[in-house]
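Here is one such protein, fold included:

. . .
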Amino acid sequence: MSLSTAAAASRSSILQPDNSSSRRRLRRNVRKLPAVLIIGLLLVITVYPLIWLLLGSLKTQSEFLNNPSWALPENFLNFDNYVQAWGDGNVGSFILNSALATFPALAMIIVFGVAAGFALEVMVWKGRGTVLLLFLAGIMVPGQMILLPLFTAYFQAGLTGTLWPLIITYTATGLPLTVFMMATYFRAVPREIFEAAAIDGASIYRSFLSIGFPMVRNAIFTVALVQFFFIWNDLLIALTFTSGSTVQTIQVGLLSFTGQFGVVEFGPTFAAICINVVGILVLYVFLNQRVMKGLTAGAVKG
């Protein structure tokens, strides 16, 4: 064998592994392509409405009426719509009403729901299975069926025109799902922990506050965030029980967001929606890791 032939064979043996590895990488990239395309499509579907909403909040009324819907704003530093939405549109008052209705209801949902979940799953007493089924039955009741009887009861009790109907209704509708989820999370906590606490002399209240509650705090955080989004974004219940503009929540306020003589002011309306959406989006972006931890907390038996 000549020297040139040996050198060529050596180069061929060196290049062959590189070609095979590049082919493997190419096949892996081709297999990943459908997933990348699907993720990209979902990203466009999610992000495009937000961008369109943000750009619409910077347009004037004449731009909405005279320019195409896909046209960009003529002035990207025009924040007059936000000033008008916050001032003339009473967005600040609507947000305050939503907060006053959401946070008290959320606090009662968490306190009662976590305590009920602990009692139904950790404590041993006769009839707890029946009580849990009753809570599950509450999930199956459509909310539309209870609005008229509740409105009649609130009217006879003199609570109409206040935020109390919203607080009571949100608490009642949020408890069944919260109790069911918290019972599931407590089921993942090893029973030996509570038994050891009982042997050491801890009362049931001490076991709940010092052991049970801290061990499911991520789950509590997740349930609280889910209920917060449900209550804050509710329109049906708020529209039914808020009879005056002084107690309207942000969703009801956006529904009736009009200018002079009933004309819809598109710019301020888009700006008001942006204020609501961006605030909730920022909250979720900062807290999404805690939500993921809470969602997986009850998935594996401890």
Observations:
- Residues 81-297 form a domain with the MetI-like fold fold (CATH 1.10.3720.10).
- The two ends are 69 Å apart (CA to CA).
- Residues 3-56 form the longest helix (54 residues).
- The chain has a mean pLDDT of 82.
